[in-house]
Write the structure tokens for this entry.
Amino acid sequence: MIGSEAGLLALCFAAAAGISFGLTPLVRLVSLRLGKLDAPTSAVKTHTTPTPIFGGVAIWAGFAGALLLLRLTTSFPSGTLHNLRALLFGGTLVFLLGLVDDLKRPQGLDYKPKLLVQFLAAALLILYGMRVRFIHPSWVAALVTAFWIAGVTNSLNIIDIMDGLASSQAAIAALGFLLVSLPSEEHYVNFAAAAIAGAAAGFLPWNLSKKRKVFMGDCGSLTLGFLLAGISLGARYSDVNDAGVFAPLLILFVPVFDTLFVSVLRLNQGKSPFLGSKDHFALRLEKLGLSRRQVVAAAAGAAALFGFCAFLATQYPLKEALALYALVAAVVLWAALRLSQVKMR
């Protein structure tokens, strides 16, 4: 490999961030010209003015463009390209699904064809040998893998309800996988994680902008979720202790928590978990008096802390790792009970 891997990872991050940042205002302009805006037409919408979408086009271009740049300028370690191709092929399928969904706004696609395409993309990763490793027999592992990928894919979509929330969570989660993966030298995870983090970070300033705001749309949130699910399958978590296999749950805990939290509350209210509502933890924190910037910052801090806990869980002996999981579970249970008591209209 030409140069150090650290330098290449930095280049990958910077290239993805640069492409995403540079393309976002262009796709925003296209969205305006086509009249494809996300309008606050329902009670579950949290913004107040029609906003351009298609930011996910820039995010996908940043991810794919950065990896293509590295492919043209360096030689990847053996086996890395195989897995990166799987991510690119499967990610492109999910990206196109999200793009069609965005083009069909405000109705969008029904959840059934969306889930079907997501499972097809998951099947592609499985065919490339990317699956959960600690479950047997192989057909059960494949089934668990498919549901894991679909679940994580949708979790980023579900959490995309506040400016900066989904993109910051995606960037921090990608860096979390990079941190866990570096000691085991899982190269495809390292490069893909750097590209995901860069692409999400490059989009973030435009999403937070007041004058030139743009949303990532489903083509962004679904793609980021799928890519994160894909890299979660590649790192080695149990080299030190068997409980390390649960580290991905900590790295992705904020979006996974919101998905489970909202689903439980909706089911408890007799509602479908596939229908929108204002039960999200972020909106409940806002109800408690935090500004939206404070909510995003708090969620980012929590994600970083959970990511570091995931790293520790892969490095500690078994007893210490289990104690760490128990502590996290207790804190999360307390937070979930406290948030569920917040009255939402």
Notes: The mean pLDDT is 91.
